[in-house]
Amino acid sequence: MSMPDKQAPAANQARGILFCPTASNADLLQEALEAARGDRPLWIWPDVPSPEKVACLVAFRPPPGVFEGLAALRLVHGVGAGVNALRDAPGRPAGVPLCRVVAEELDQGMAQHIIHAILRETRDHRLYDEQQRARIWKRLTQRHACDITVGIMGLGALGLATARPLRQLGYNLVGWSRSRKSAEGIESFAGPAEMGTFLSRSDFLVVLLPITAETHGILDATALSKLPRGAVVVAVGRGGQVDEAALLAALDSGHLSHAHLDVFETEPLPADSALWAHPGVTLTPHIAASPHPLAVARLVMENLSRIERGEPPLHAVDEARGY
């Protein structure tokens, strides 16, 4: 007969939720958690009157020391698709599930952001904006989707959700991922050995990879040089995957025609970064996609209830893979 778990009584009594309001939409997330929590206590960091009763920590970027005293913690939950700040946080207890958000609104928002960037380039709206300011009436030769290949780097939920409408719009699609994927209308490439061929086919490169030790800096000068001349980079996954200095050099040389960047090595982007004023860069402050706060709150409650019932939570991070 196995010995009883000495921490089980404390864990069973702990039902509280601790929310760290570090996300940009923290007020809305707090309201959603309040609406969805039922009779569970909800505490807002740094006000934690009963740390021993915290069963779930909800955060985007956890503040230093947040895990101290959370002896009965049973779930760490992110508020978006990326949880690298939580994954790498000092003091995160081993063995406690870490979950990310997978939601329809997140998929839709990401697809909208990427398609907007691609259409802005393929239909020359960025150039037409310049012509309007200069009062120039000039029709440019239209590029057709059937002559353009979009490469999606990362074929997870967000990558596949983006691929479907792009395929309906008539673009050719290739995809690259750690392991080979099978998806309708996407020619799949996998692993380091096939990355060069994938890049050489990508007139538009959409970067949607998770951030791991293997993907940090994956798009360096050598990788960017394998893209077709005039290619466009759309980086919306995680900062640190595109070598920013190498990207600027590729834009300056004319090898790349433009870059749409939503994620960066350092966020907020430093005021002295050359990316701000570069004519070949369109940047946004990490806003490509965000799930509805109520969807986040409902998922947190569902996962906490599943753990209490002894069931595996939804969308848990694989600790070995890092995502």
Automatic annotation (TrEMBL):
Q: Which UniProt keywords apply?
A: NAD, Oxidoreductase
Q: Where is the D-isomer specific 2-hydroxyacid dehydrogenase NAD-binding domain?
A: 117-288
Q: According to the lineage, what is the superkingdom?
A: Bacteria
Known InterPro entries for this protein?
D-isomer_DH_CS1, D-isomer_DH_NAD-bd, NAD(P)-bd_dom_sf
GO molecular function, one example? NAD binding
Name under which the protein is recorded: Glyoxylate/hydroxypyruvate reductase A
Q: What is the lineage of its organism?
A: Bacteria, Pseudomonadati, Pseudomonadota, Alphaproteobacteria, Acetobacterales
